[in-house]
Design brief:
The complex is a heterodimer of chains A (91) and B (141). With 91 residues, chain A is α+β, with helices and mostly antiparallel strands. Chain A has 4 helices and 3 strands, in the order ααββααβ. The N and C termini of chain B lie close together (6 Å). Classes of the chains: A alpha+beta (91), B mainly beta (141). Chains A and B meet through helix 1 and helix 3 of A and strand 3, strand 10 and strand 12 of B.
């Protein structure tokens, strides 16, 4: 039993989701220049190396996705915010 | 035990999961490894939806960085779980409170910008050692 199973989280499932999200995040950065042209200042949803939704509001995006995808698929969809081009992180 | 970072143009990110009094996040999120930040913080972009900040305590200090300052809010009784290189989850630490970062607005363009969630020096160099190599970045207990 993993520590998250005690919280009601299926650790094996979550590990699989991490791997899917890792792939999606990698794809997002590989395509960031194009994404910033089309989706600047929006939340985007990535699934299997495709953009499957976007919206300025995360809640609206999630509600749209809920109508198209199963709960399992929703968990595997990676959502992130696309900052506009021209900003770099100096933290 | 090691925690391998995902290397991106924006920096190195670690998969993590948190629970707190205000909510439980059972989706993992990516925390940026940030030795420039004194504290760890959760970005509001990693929460589920629109956030009513009036329900959160405001942190007495603002977050400052290059470009200005940002008011931040507090979440309480935070448990931080990290994903290990061996693909297990461990509870790394607990915080009485953690900063919640709202989006900031660029004053020139009026554009909304989000900072990432951050693992700062309250963890780096204290609970975890950071190894920043040419082709691999990882944390280690």
């Amino acid at each position: 039993m993993g520590i998250l199973n005690d919280l009601g989280v299926d650790e094996n499932r979550l590990t699989g989701i991490v791997k899917k999200h890792d792939e999606s995040m990698k794809w997002m950065y590989e395509n960031m220049e194009n994404l910033q042209k089309s989706y600047a200042s929006k939340f985007i949803a990535i699934y299997n190396k495709k953009i499957v939704g976007s919206d300025a509001k995360k809640t609206e995006l999630f509600n749209t996705l809920k109508q198209k995808y199963t709960d399992d698929e929703l968990e595997e969809i990676y959502i992130d915010f696309i900052n506009p081009k021209g900003y770099i992180l100096i933290l | 035990m090691q925690f391998e970072a995902r290397i991106t143009p924006d920096g190195a990110f670690i998969p993590a999961l948190i629970t707190c009094n205000e909510f439980s996040l059972f989706r993992h999120i990516y925390f940026l490894i940030d030795t420039g930040s004194a504290i760890s913080a959760l970005s509001s972009k990693d929460l589920g939806g629109d956030i009513d900040y009036s329900s959160f305590d405001k942190k007495s200090e603002a977050a400052i960085g290059i470009g200005g300052s940002l008011e931040c809010y507090l979440i309480h009784e935070v448990k931080l779980f990290l994903f290990t290189a061996e693909e297990n989850w461990i509870e790394l630490t607990r915080f009485d409170s953690m900063c919640l970062l709202p989006p900031s607005i660029d004053l020139l363009t009026k554009t909304r910008i989000y900072l990432p969630s951050i693992i700062g020096r309250d963890i780096l160099g204290t609970i975890l050692d950071l190894y920043y190599l040419k082709d691999k970045i990882y944390l280690e207990i």
